[in-house]
Write a structure and sequence with these properties.
217 residues; alpha+beta; 2 domains; elongated
Length: 217
């Protein structure tokens, strides 16, 4: 199994803590320490599970928008997006819980034209106002005649947004663009006349689930 590079330190620390506790438990022959070692091992396994980074394949195409995150599609709404879109856009919001893969992926091919980081609050990421008030990182992608924005939003537990993108980078559909640690949300902004292929409540898979088709232009 592949792991996100941001997780190597956490996985190493958790594994070292588990191994050390087993060594001490063996030396002291203490059942309490054996129990503690088992608990720490379970935690270490969960840490590794959290930072898993599986390969993803699926439908691809110039007009296809794939999910940027694993999770649940909790909101589809029309909004104003002045930062990069410069007008009305359809916003699709995916909420990630602590059991989802947290590596985020580009929803479409193109060129990264816009980056913006906003230091904010850590409200519940499922709440509507978190899209405006929470800590977030936005990546704008220009793809032919289309402008698509992906916004990584921190949540109650999440305290670290990682964005690999740099202005001028080539965005490759389904490839990794960053991650958010320990539960949060990712919004994708698309043209309002796009054809939706996903419904509210859908469980999405980053880089695989098709959210919409962009309009013919």
């Amino acid at each position: 199994m592949n792991f996100a590079r941001e997780g190597y330190v956490f996985i190493g620390i958790a594994a070292a803590a588990a191994a050390s506790t087993f060594v001490v438990a063996l030396a002291r022959r203490s059942w309490a320490l054996w129990l503690l070692a088992i608990v720490i091992t379970i935690i270490a396994l969960w840490v590794a599970y959290f930072f898993r980074d599986p390969e993803r394949t699926g439908e691809r195409g110039a007009r296809v928008v794939v999910a940027p995150a694993d999770g649940k599609l909790i909101l589809i709404t029309e909004v104003d997006e002045p930062g990069f879109i410069g007008g009305k856009a359809l916003r699709l919001s995916i909420f990630m819980n602590v059991f989802n893969v947290h590596v985020n992926r580009y929803p479409i091919d193109g060129t990264v034209k816009y980056l913006h980081y906003n230091k904010g609050k850590f409200l519940n990421a499922a709440a509507e106002k978190s899209s405006l008030e929470n800590e977030q990182s936005s990546v704008g992608i220009e793809s032919g005649p289309y402008r698509i924005l992906v916004r990584q939003i921190a949540g109650l537990i999440a305290r670290r947004i990682v964005t690999y993108s740099r202005v001028g980078d080539t965005a490759k559909q389904g490839e990794r663009m960053g991650m958010i640690r320990f539960g949060s949300r990712v919004d994708v902004f698309i043209p309002t006349d796009s054809k939706l292929r996903a419904n509210l409540g859908l469980m999405t898979t980053a880089g695989t689930t098709v959210l919409a088709e962009l309009p013919q232009r």
